Model the fold of this input.
Amino acid sequence: MAVDRVADAFGRHAPELRGYLTRAVRDGELAADLTGDAFARLVVADQAGRFPNQPRAWLFRVAINLAASHGRHRRVEQRVASSQRESFVQELGPSVEQHVVGVERIAELGKMLDMVAGDGRTALLLSAAGYDGESIARQIGRTHGATRALMARSRISLRRMLEVVEA
Done:
C-alpha cells in the first residue's frame, strides 16, 4: 500500500532530514517546512507510480534542491526590497535634519565666499553658474591665463577655509 511506504519513509528519514536542513538553512521552522515539502513531493511521486528505489537519497536530493531554491528566492526578495527601500527614500527626499544641515552649510559657504577677494569671488560664482574660462575672463577684465590663476588661488583659499570649519 502506498501510504505505508511514505509513512515508513517518514518514520525512518524525517528526523535526520530535518536535522540536516536545520543545519543547512539555520532556521528550525524553515527546516520543518522544507522537510514537509520534501515528503509532500514523495507522496506525489508515489501517487504517480514513481516511488524511488532509494527514498532516503531521493528525499535528501529534493530537500537540497528546495533549500537552494528557497535561498535564491530569498535573495531576490531582499534585492527587490532593498531597491524599493532606496527608491522610497529617494522619493521622500532629504530629511528635515539633512535640509537644515544643508541650509547651514550654504550659509557658511556664503560667508566664506564673502571673504574671498572681489574678482576671485566673482570668478568662482560665474564658474559655478556654468560660465567657461574665456567668458569669466571677459567679465572680470583679465586675460584667460590670469583668470585661471586667480580661480585656482581662490579655490585653494576657499578649500582651506572649509577645512578649518569642518575640523
